[in-house]
Specification:
The model has no long low-confidence stretch (mean pLDDT 90). Helix 2 runs parallel beside helix 7. This protein has one domain: Isochorismatase-like (Rossmann fold, 3-Layer(aba) Sandwich), CATH 3.40.50. The two termini are 29 Å apart. The protein is 36% helix and 19% strand. The protein is an alpha/beta fold. The protein contains 7 helices and 6 strands. A 6-stranded parallel beta sheet has the order 3-2-1-4-5-6, sandwiched between helices. It comes from Streptomyces seoulensis.
């Protein structure tokens, strides 16, 4: 029997401010979270967290240099908090990662193994960053994967479209939040 977890990745205040396109992303994601809870599916929040002074950031990483220039992800900074519209509840796990993938520098693998979770449902910002990196690692770990296409968001809509329509279906099931809620027995988002 497959045991799944919903991953809510990098939906932190500053990231939402940069990426939210006014399409109703946060309410849709809230519906997925509420649906997962109603179906007994664990919700695991993944946040990017860099220590003050950025000791884990090397000089050769172009991606991390861009993150530092943008002033994102410093642990304890208000902008690095999980967005309050989708905030964790008691019993939800929050995992801190140090790089793009939810597995990089985190204890996510330990959390999944401890709960006998063998399948992931991926959501988050950005499709071309945390979602892509985490999906690739999940495939390498032989985990089942579903990507909620409208539960992901990217600052480049064309890159998002290409990933969810062309690349991700090669590695995972790709469905909308509404389709996934119907499949788990929660036909519409809960309020």
């Amino acid at each position: 029997m497959t045991s799944s977890a919903l991953l809510v990745m990098d939906v932190q205040r500053d990231v939402v401010d940069l990426a939210d396109d006014g399409s109703g992303y946060l309410p849709r994601l809230r519906g997925a979270i509420d649906g997962a809870r109603a179906a007994g599916i664990p919700v695991v929040y993944v946040v990017m967290g860099l220590r003050p002074g950025d000791p884990e950031v090397g000089t050769r990483s172009k991606v991390m240099a861009n993150v530092l220039r943008a002033g994102l992800f410093t642990e304890g900074a208000p902008g690095s908090e999980i967005h309050p519209d989708i905030a964790p509840r008691a019993g939800d796990v929050v995992v801190t990662k140090r790089r793009g993938s939810a597995f990089s520098g985190s204890d996510l693998d330990l959390v999944l193994r401890a709960r006998d979770i063998d399948s992931l449902v991926l959501t988050g910002i950005a499709t071309s960053a945390v979602v892509l990196s985490t999906l690739r690692r999940a495939v390498d770990l032989d985990l089942g994967a579903t990507v909620l296409s409208d539960g992901c968001l990217d600052t480049d809509p064309e890159v998002h479209r290409m990933l969810v329509e062309r690349l991700f279906p090669q590695w995972a099931d790709v469905v909308t939040v509404e389709e996934w809620l119907g499949a788990i027995g929660t036909p519409r988002p809960l309020s």
